[in-house]
Design brief:
The chain is about 0% helix and about 50% strand. The protein is an all-beta fold. It has no helices and twelve strands. The strands form two sheets. Strands 2, 4, 5, 6, 10, 11 and 12 form a seven-stranded mixed sheet that branches.
Amino acid sequence: QVQLVESGGGLVQAGGSLRLSCAASGRTFSNYAMGWFRQAPGKERECVAALKWSDGSTYVADSVKGRFTIPGDNTKNIVYLQMNSLKPEDTAGYYCAARTYGGRWPPRKYDEYDYWGQGTQVTVSS
């Protein structure tokens, strides 16, 4: 079992920055990759970024490329989502996910992850 706890969401003005954190506990040694997803009301859950622990490979969705990054600290089992130049369309619930098995890279679909955090809300005002 892997437990994930997100933090760092909140309300920010357009153009501002936020950093989300996801702390993993439990059988973290088996984690292959971590991902950040977001879901706005009425929209599908979208993978915005992913990190592969073994070699540090990262994936960032085109919709946020150049603004979001996904640094991680595998000594602390924490992955971050650094969000800069935020836009109102970035408003969504943000979820951290862990994938404990290898396979296709990058894993961009929600069913390619087997553990999820509870989510944290990000609201960007115009």
